[in-house]
Design goal:
The protein contains 15 helices and 20 strands. It is an alpha/beta fold. The structure holds ligand BES and zinc ion (2 copies). It holds the Pfam family Peptidase_M17_N.
Length: 502
């Protein structure tokens, strides 16, 4: 896919050549000055006239009329050097590759050194390039009957870098690609409808992932889940004909199984709401209620590729939330694996129930730090909108580490408070230790607070991605549908993780 070359020969034949253009007085120097000479200085003229723009994310296409080997040149505007960040560079690449893809090219070349700034070196640029390439050209195949016309796919990219060692550039391209592919896998899992991705299918997917990356894997079936007393998880599955699966993957990157990070993802393959049934408009799209599980599996894929020196246990409780004569009901009292009893006030608040047992189980597997991730509440959309993941924590310095990773990944998150007053609301039940739905005020917060009851003293961060897991608008780094949000944040968090002194 990526071929790195240290010699940049303008005569080499390519369908396209991509050049980055910073908004600075000297537009063409070094190899680019040679390029401009080939065009008798006309490129400089085109910049002056504004036909080629250095404005951030503007894409200008110029035909080469046989003056160089490449048929056309794509100039990518990068704006002012001091303002160009890793994120913005990825977006610019994303916009470029969408354009290149639409032009149906099968191969193109890129002059990496034209994307280097004082803050971003060739290795950053290479990572941004390959990650953006995977993300921006992602497409969910779907289930339409295919036409017979062969599809042209951009499959070969020659990367020229005179300033950086080819092997190093190749490594960065591979890492960026792993981040992109892991996110795309998460997107695909979310885009698949509930009839085609059951808990059993998700478990099979995890087994396949485990064999690809030599993870230890454990899939608990219904009998084992019953034996362990996971009454909260089982209650949600009670109305379904599909058996539940508790999926566990272990990656050991240290000699000892210590400082274990637990990644816990909500894996509801379809959420009808149960007897607290959703509206006919609200139920559409609920195939995406396993977005947390998808992010965890996507992150595990990246971890499998990059193999950091960390220990990770991924735990995914998976089932659908259905209605039948057997289904659980409001007023039911259930007993979680932790022993805590729960009064069910709303069967649509099922995510926190399955996560309660999953968090407890992650601790049983040795997790000393927990991050749970879930399409948990409509309330987080009311609070933070559609572009920001909601976060909560019982441990500020663990939260800082997750926040740092999210900033590096370019995924927005914002913390919601966890005060005693809201913990009290979760603990307020006449018949049980907890209730699963203390009323609509601060939905997102009480949902997080409920999960926190099961994290107990273990450092824990909760991520609510109900607003960010999908998008109804295409963007530079992806199409409409699943975003794969937080896949990269989780993987980066694991990679950079520093154990906290106890
Ligand atoms: N899966 C939903 C949350 C959701 C909403 C995800 C919109 C994606 C988009 C969750 O299980 C749910 O139904 N939450 C309820 C909780 C309430 C009934 C206490 C909510 O937030 O409305
Ligand atoms: Zn629900
Ligand atoms: Zn749900």
């Amino acid at each position: 896919m990526f071929h790195v070359k240290s010699e940049f020969d303008l005569a080499t034949i390519h369908e396209g050549l991509v050049i980055g253009l910073l908004d600075k007085p000297e537009k063409f120097s070094g190899s680019l000055a040679k390029l401009d000479t080939q065009f008798n200085g006309q490129l400089t003229e085109l910049v002056k006239s504004g036909d080629i723009s250095a404005k951030l994310k503007s894409i200008s296409k110029v035909h080469s009329f046989g003056k160089i080997g490449s048929k056309r040149i794509w100039f990518v505007g990068l704006g002012k050097e001091k303002d160009l960040t890793f994120d913005k560079l990825k977006e610019a690449f994303g916009k470029l590759f969408k354009d290149v893809k639409a032009s149906k090219l099968e191969e193109t070349a890129i002059y990496l050194d034209s994307f280097i700034t004082e803050k971003l070196d060739g290795l950053d640029a290479a990572h941004a390039l390959s990650e953006a390439f995977a993300l921006s050209t992602y497409q969910f195949e779907g289930y339409k009957q295919k036409s017979n016309e062969p599809e042209r796919k951009l499959e070969n990219l020659t990367v020229y870098s005179e300033a950086f060692v080819a092997e190093d550039v190749q490594v960065s391209l591979t890492v960026g690609d792993a981040f992109g592919q892991g996110t795309n896998s998460a997107r695909t899992l979310v885009n698949i409808p509930g009839n085609l991705l059951t808990a059993t299918d998700m478990a099979n997917y995890a087994v396949e992932l485990a064999s690809r990356y030599e993870f230890e894997v454990e899939i608990l079936d219904k009998t084992e889940i019953e034996k362990l007393g996971m009454g909260a998880f089982l209650a949600v599955n009670q109305g379904s004909t599909e058996p539940p699966k508790m999926i566990v993957l272990k990656y050991q990157g240290r000699d000892e199984w210590t400082d274990v990070i637990g990644l816990v993802g909500k894996g509801i393959t379809f959420d009808t709401g149960g007897y607290s049934i959703k509206t006919k408009a609200g139920i559409v799209g609920m195939k995406t209620d396993m977005g947390g599980a998808a992010a965890v599996l996507g992150a595990m894929e990246i971890i499998g590729e990059t193999r950091p020196e960390q220990n990770v246990v991924a735990v995914i409780p998976s089932t659908d939330n259905m209605i039948s004569g057997n289904a659980f009901k409001p007023d039911d009292v259930i007993t979680s694996m932790s022993g805590k009893t729960i009064e069910v006030l709303n069967t649509d608040a099922e995510g926190r129930l399955v996560l309660a047992d999953a968090v407890t189980y992650a601790k049983h597997h040795g997790a000393e730090y927990l991050v749970d991730i879930a399409t948990l509440t409509g309330g987080v959309i009311t609070a933070l909108g559609l572009h920001t993941t909601g976060a909560m924590t019982n441990h500020e310095s663990l939260y800082e580490q997750v926040l740092e990773a999210s900033m590096e990944a370019g995924e927005q998150m914002w913390q919601l408070p966890l005060f005693e007053s809201e913990k009290e609301r979760v603990r307020n039940s006449k018949v049980a230790d907890l209730n699963n739905s203390p009323g609509s005020e601060g939905h997102a917060i009480v949902a997080g607070a409920f999960i926190g009851e099961f994290a107990e003293g273990t450092p824990w961060v909760h991520l609510d991605i109900a607003g960010t897991a999908t998008t109804s608008k295409a963007y530079d780094l992806g199409p409409v549908g699943a975003t794969g949000v937080m896949t990269r944040t989780l993987a980066l968090f694991v990679e950079r993780f520093e154990p906290i002194e106890k």
